[in-house]
Amino acid sequence: MTRKFLFRPLYLLIFPTIMAFTVSVDHARAAEVPPYLNPHMPEDTRVRDLLSRMTLDEKIGQMAQADSGAVADPADVQKYALGAMLSGGNSKPLENNPAAWLKMVNEYQSWALKTRLKIPLLYGIDAVHGHNDVVGTVIFPHNIGQGATRDAALLEKAEHITALEMAGTGIRWSFAPCLAVAQDERWGRTYESFGQAPELVSAMAAAAVKGFQGTQLSDRPDSILACAKHFVGDGGTLNGLDEGDTVCDEATLRKLFLPPYRAAIRAGVESIMVSYSSWNGDKMHGNKHLLTGVLKQELGFKGFLVSDDAGIDQLSPDYKVAVESAINAGLDMAMIPRGPGQPNSYVVFIQDLKDLVAEGNVKPTRINDAVSRILRVKFEMGLFEHPYTGDPALAAAIGSPAHRQVARQCVRESLVLLKNERHTLPLSKKIKHLVVVGEAADDLGIQCGGWTVDWQSRPGEVTTGGTTILAAIRHAVSPETQVTYSPGANGITNADAVIAVVGELPYAEWHGDAASLGLDPGDAALVEQAKSSGAPVTTILLSGRPLILGPALDNSDAFIAAWLPGTEGQGVADVLFGDYKPTGKLPREWPRSMDQAAANDMTGEPLFPFGFGLTF
Ligand code: BGC
User: Fold this and answer.
1) Nearest Cα residue to atom 12 of ligand 1
2) Quick one: pLDDT at residue 396?
3) C-alpha distances in angstroms, 571 versus 99, 406, 467, 472?
4) 546 closest CA partner among 566, 530, 528, 564
5) Distance CA 140, CA 161 (A)
6) Residue 599's pLDDT is what?
């Protein structure tokens, strides 16, 4: 790929011209360039050189990551020498389109380059199923669906497409992949987990990291810093409570939740996010044994550790005490959603940490370690040489047919066929009269789930392009086929087959925690009504986790778990009409009853076991 950097800083444009004049000028000029600005120097030398030039304020600035929604004045990036920024789930430019994102990120970067040492910013975002905050990007299935594909090579491709789309908006850091090994599906983040088995999550972890970063993190614009999250045990909390407590001995913690991190580190991941959750009552953000002892020392993690959003704040009501314990536990960067004038803002974090160093409660060596880790990543990414991205070719490819094609493949491979009686599937494309029922059949918002354009997302138009399942069905059948859409399944007559699309409404994080996971009664009634038409019924379930199906399973002749497939509904049609024979396998056991799900013990035979999936 050719690199075209539209907005190189002035010194990088002027410098080569001067160098061309004479050899002696060349030498003289080269001698003036500090080692840290010389890309030919080894990274360690550059880190040491830069560190030796930095004041304590500049160092601590590198350890602060401010949310764009909290930075009222972009000049704060320069004023506080901030090292990183992010767009949290709801922080975005006024207009949501790729060009506006690029402009916003590059503007913040221009402020970072006004600092004395011109240390570039690292900008992060939750690109967790595609570059999902940005309107017009392709949205992939959420991780639970990717786990169902069992296709690590395909996931690597998908994350590389996400990386390309991110690079088109100037963002080089993704808070993904989520490596939760979700044990209890009552947890609202179950769909962010590739599955309930550490082996499955580990295989997907390595693929995702390579998809984002490439074989190693580099200065290619599409080499995106991956962030494995949330370390560790986020998917093991009691009763599936988000940000709750994972209660187990260390051997169990290591066996269930650590392997994906080992795999991600082997694959070269350079940032890891700490979990809000606790382990046996102790908050992970303050756990020195796990953050420093296990992750950095034992597993040899060389990148940097970032907190979850305001994750430090949960350590103590006294913020300064909280900062002290997190940084001393091994945290390198604090993600901070609050700005000046607010409690626990980035201004307060910087001041508190400075005071802690002055008082001797945080050692300068700990600061130097944290800052060295952050700087080394920035050097590896070539940010000093290319602080601005914005290749028009990358921007033009956002949401392109080629990118959507990969997502469509993910969708068709992610579908798990749970039941297929009376040879209901595949349907003939020449079927005379097909009736489609259920609001979810024509609803991109439900199809994509949480973390789509907005943090929580919502049903309905998500303003981003895509193909609903209904549109895909209409497109797939022959011109002679009559397709009737009846959202409420009213008055179905003369149907040769009925397709019912039902499922969960969008949610994210703790908003999705649920004590009861039964199929919505309205959905159950819809399937029953479809059944009463006498035509064979295929039910497609859109959900972030297995639901308790009740009679809906019996009332369906065929049943597909389609998870949260994203914008490419054609992947569902590919399976319905037999262009693709189902290969998806359950990434988690499917409980028979809520009691069984709540007991989190499937020894009493689940409805469908882990790995189940039919084909035709
Ligand atoms: C979530 C993280 C996310 C962060 C930044 C937090 O609430 O737990 O997964 O990366 O917000 O948006």
Assistant:
1) 88
2) 95
3) 29, 10, 10, 8
4) 564
5) 10
6) 74
Say which of 185, 222, 308, 380 is annotated catalytic: 308
Tell which residue, 377, 382, 374, has the closest CA to residue 62. Answer: 374
Tabulate helix, strand, coil % of the chain (nearest 5). Answer: 40, 15, 45
Task: Report the distance separating Cα 100 and Cα 94, nearest Å.
Answer: 8
Catalytic-residue membership of 509: yes
pLDDT lower than 50: segments of the chain: 1-26, 28, 602
309 CA → ligand 1 middle, Å: 6
Q: For residues 67 and 86, what is the distance between their CA atoms, to the nearest angstrom?
A: 5
Ligand 1 cavity residues, CB under 6 Å: 88-89, 126, 175, 229, 308-309, 509
Q: Which two tokens stand for residue 37?
A: 């600005």
- Angle made by CA atoms 280, 284, 285, in degrees to the nearest 5: 150
- Ligand 1 atom 7: the closest Cα is on which residue? 309
Q: Which protein residue has the closest C-alpha to ligand 1 atom 5? A: 88
Radius of gyration of the chain (CA): 25
CA separation for the pair 602, 596 (Å, rounded): 7
313 CA → ligand 1 middle, Å: 14
CA 521 / ligand 1 centre spacing (Å): 32
**13-67: per-residue pLDDT in tens?**
343 343 343 344 445 455 589 999 999 999 999 999 999 999 999 999 999 999 9
Q: Give the pLDDT score at 526.
A: 98
395: DSSP letter: H
Could you confirm whether 496 is annotated as catalytic?
no
Between CA 513 and CA 185 the distance in angstroms is 9
Distances (CA, A) of 41 to 33, 34, 293: 11, 10, 31
Q: Which atom of ligand 1 is nearest to the CA of 229?
A: 9
Nearest alpha carbon to residue 557 among 614, 497, 611: 497
Tokens of 153: 């090579």
Distance CA(4)–CA(99), nearest Å, equals: 16
